[in-house]
Design brief:
single chain, alpha/beta, Rossmann fold, five-stranded parallel sheet, 51% helix, 12% strand
């Protein structure tokens, strides 16, 4: 069974903005998911965050195109926030002091039984210790059993 990676919004934004330090690693991870070497999940919250970030940076006209590409990606499940995940997110905000959006992402990852939470947010990675394995894209090996 393939490693299941939960993808935080910043992984997609690295590629959308072709960020010099990060786009190569994030693109490589997304390619491995597209090829079926890894399985990917993300939340519908990711689509909202991508759209808001793109609007904030002046790329409003490209939002629909970016979201269509995300929605067409093979081996990536975009999950709606369930009632169970919403309750879990509340606990994560109260107990782990996560932001509401981060809590939605983490709750979706836990509900989706992700093996690894892929993010570049080191502060969030630290908050997930003991709850969920978190890593940057470059550290995810498609053969690894996380």
């Amino acid at each position: 069974m393939a490693t299941v990676c939960y993808l935080d919004t910043n992984i997609f934004l690295n590629v959308i903005y072709a960020e010099p330090l990060y786009s190569k690693g994030s693109s490589s991870l997304l390619q491995r998911i597209q090829e079926g070497k890894l399985a990917g999940i993300t939340s519908s919250v990711t689509e909202t965050e991508i759209g808001l970030d793109m609007a904030k940076t002046g790329s409003t006209e490209k939002i629909d195109e970016a979201l269509r590409l995300l929605e067409r990606m093979q081996n990536l499940e975009i999950t709606s926030l369930s009632s169970l995940a919403a309750r879990l997110a509340l606990r994560l905000v109260l107990e782990r002091r996560l932001t509401v959006h981060d809590a939605y992402h983490v709750a979706t990852a836990l509900e989706g039984k992700a093996s690894v939470f892929v993010t570049r947010d080191r502060h969030l990675q630290r908050k997930l210790q003991g709850l969920l394995y978190a890593s940057e894209p470059e550290r995810i090996d498609s053969d690894q059993k996380v």
